[in-house]
Amino acid sequence: MAEDAEIRRRNVPSDDPANEQVEDAEKLMNEAGSGISVPQPAPTTPANDPTPECLKVLPPRWRNWVIRGTLTLVMISTFCGIIYMGPFWLSVLVLSIQVKCFHEIINIGYVVYRSHDLPWFRSLSWYFLVAANYFFYGEFLCDYFGTFLVKGDFLRPFITYHRFISFSVYIFGLCLFVLSLVKTYYVRQFTMFGWTHITLLIVVTQSHLIIQNIFQGLIWFIVPTSMVICNDIFAYIFGFFFGKTSLIKLSPKKTWEGFIGALFSTMVWSFFVSYPLCSQSYFTCPFIFDSDSRTFSLACETDSLFTLTDYTLPLVLQKLFVVLKLNWTTMTCYPFQLHSVVMAIFCSLIGPFGGFFASGFKRAFKIKDFSDTIPGHGGIVDRFDCQYLMATFTHVYLSSFIRAANPQKLMQHILSLEPADQLLIFTRLKNHLVKVGLVQAVA
Q1: Contact, 362 vs 369, CB < 8 A?
Q2: Alpha-carbon distance 205 to 197, whole Å?
Q3: End-to-end CA distance of the chain, in Å?
Q4: 3-state secondary structure the chain
Q5: pLDDT of 223-270, one tens digit each?
């Protein structure tokens, strides 16, 4: 099958314990008559080798370097172009990546488990993807555009009863799954049902958080995303030129030299790349929709997070600068720059575990990449495994340490209430502000 050819076998040494476990599992499953088998590798011949003629003269190591480097520059340039187009197109990009990641992961299950024998498997997998997106992105639209959408008679029921509709859509899919069960394939059908839902948890939930970050301000998307890209690039560069010590068995090409070099490079990158972005309201302001004028806005009052602040340096650094004959006791920077360094540490120390998780997944099924969408890089999942983990951390960090509530969301909820409830909130809020002295009482 053509789909079998898309899944490439990883060449794992025969004495590798992980390889032995996979082989033992295969024997047991085949003996049990489950029909599960790992696809055979597709042979590479000069006729189907996609490598350009000008690169075939290079050694394989440098050939891969050139291909990866060229495609990396192309992806970064495309990414910058979409950022310039604004939050809406960034959201479209995130949704497109989500769908492609889902396709790659589900396709592995389809090929490895020979799921073409299962009734409705692919249709139900995509149905649950649509159902999950309907719930998450419907919640998002209700939060940001609810008061505008509810003005239309056609959309009002979908906004008012969104959660009930989402629940009903999912339950309908669950009933279809139960009706599709075949006695011979119970184990495989429930296995793929779990496979689909784990994929939804990893892909849809975290892509939803990425879009939440975008609407909090482009800087909360650009800086964390660039950290992962920077960390990946410098880990590859340091590992390519200086790597000698293997970091983890799951990913033999990762080295301690690359890991440590990428850590310091990412911290420096995050601190300095944040500086010019903090001074531009286009990157720092939340993406707000004005339901009265029906327009989007990226204009706001400058938050203290993006205001230059003087910080006293720790005594250790002050003494170090004295030795260097530098009279530096304070530092002026944006508070966001310090937060970006914290996020860079997470990106460098914990972020790679998203890639290790993906590597373990691929080794379990003896495949090299999730697909061959991007030459030299593999599939979309191979490029965005760490991005999803970083996006989740950014969202948690933002909501925990930076902003407790989103005024835009609160206003949408208030404006969707009945006039009597809105008046009650206004009265109580006015009394509270008078009590704490923020406004003057009116006689």
Answers
A1: yes
A2: 11
A3: 82
A4: CHHHHHCCECCCCCCCHHHHHHHHHHHHHHHCCCCCCCCCCCCCCCCCCCCCHHHCCCCHHHHHHHHHHHHHHHHHHHHHHHHHHCHHHHHHHHHHHHHHHHHHHHHHHHHHCCHHHCCCHHHHHHHHHHHHHHHHHHHHHHHHHHHHHCCCCCCHHHHHCHHHHHHHHHHHHHHHHHHHCCHHHHHHHHHHHHHHHHHHHHHHHHHHHHHHHHHHCCHHHHHHHHHHHHHHHHHHHHHHHHCCCEEECCEEEEEHHHHHHHHHHHHHHHHHHHHHHHCCHHHHCCCEEECCCCEEECCCCCCHHHCCEEEECCHHHHHHHHHCCCCCCEEEECHHHHHHHHHHHHHHHCCHHHHHHHHHHHHHCCECCCCCCECCCECHHHHHHHHHHHHHHHHHHHHHHHCCCCHHHHHHHHHCCCHHHHHHHHHHHHHHHHHCCCCCCCC
A5: 999 999 899 889 988 988 888 888 888 888 888 999 999 999 999 999
Strand partners, 170: none
Task: Name residue 139's amino acid.
Answer: E
Give the residue from 336, 75, 371 showing the smallest Cα distance to 223.
Answer: 336
pTM assigned to the model: 0.76
At which residue do the structure tokens 């239309």 appear?
Answer: 152
Q: How far apart are CA 300 and CA 307, in angstroms?
A: 13
Backbone phi, psi, residue 248, to 5°: -150, 140
C-alpha–C-alpha distance, residues 129 and 207, integer Å: 12
Residues in the chain, overall count = 443
Asked if the model's pLDDT at residue 321 lies above 80, the reply is: yes
* Cα 48 from Cα 45, distance rounded (Å): 6
